[in-house]
């Protein structure tokens, strides 16, 4: 791990892996060191705003191989598995479309971090056969609520946007509402399940 200053009151912790970044985030959340104003986890990083000295001291002595588990919030999303890349995902995984749906719905996912667009959560826990590359040519328009996968992640597009993830299906859940409290449905550490609806 390596620290980099970000202005006067923040620092970025560069981690060796996604697991290490998640463990650092969970450790700081559980300890609540004084002075911390905000934590922004990334795929291999953790931005700490305020209380940087206290967080550095905490993490120097922390056992990141065994981070605090906490009690994650659980979210279940209803999905219509009719995505335009379902057949491609099945073919590349060497399984049937029905097996893709079964594997995607049987797994329990964890929100590792958020980004790309407000409310977009990068969910880990994707079964190995579903870990597939992004599309060679991204779409210029992906509808809001589209459920996709790319690499080690699955996720849901909170609003219409360009995107290169392979699309499995669609949910009608609202992932981001600026007038809600909190505005984003997903927060790092949350557990997510997908339920097949026809």
Automatic annotation (TrEMBL):
This is Allophanate hydrolase. It holds the Pfam family CT_C_D. PANTHER family: 5-OXOPROLINASE SUBUNIT B (PTHR34698). It comes from Amycolatopsis bullii. Keywords: ATP-binding, Hydrolase, Nucleotide-binding. Residues 1-186 form the Carboxyltransferase domain. Transmembrane segments: none annotated. GO terms for molecular function: hydrolase activity.
């Amino acid at each position: 791990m390596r620290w980099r200053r970000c202005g006067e009151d923040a620092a970025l912790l560069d981690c060796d892996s996604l697991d290490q970044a998640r463990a650092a985030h969970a450790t700081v959340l559980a300890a609540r060191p004084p002075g911390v104003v905000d934590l922004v986890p990334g795929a291999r990083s953790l931005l700490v705003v305020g209380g940087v000295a206290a967080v550095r001291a905490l993490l120097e002595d922390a056992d990141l191989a065994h981070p605090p588990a906490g009690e994650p919030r659980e979210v279940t999303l209803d999905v219509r598995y009719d995505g335009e890349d379902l057949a491609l995902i099945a073919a590349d995984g060497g399984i049937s479309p029905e097996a893709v749906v079964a594997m995607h719905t049987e797994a329990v996912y964890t929100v590792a971090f958020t980004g790309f667009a407000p409310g977009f959560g990068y969910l880990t826990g994707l079964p190995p056969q579903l870990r597939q590359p992004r599309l060679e040519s991204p779409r210029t328009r992906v509808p809001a609520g589209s459920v996709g996968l790319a690499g080690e992640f699955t996720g849901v597009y909170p609003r219409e946007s360009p995107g290169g993830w392979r699309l499995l299906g669609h949910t009608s859940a609202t992932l981001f509402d600026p007038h809600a409290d909190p505005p984003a449905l997903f927060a790092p550490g949350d557990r997510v399940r997908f339920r097949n609806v026809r």
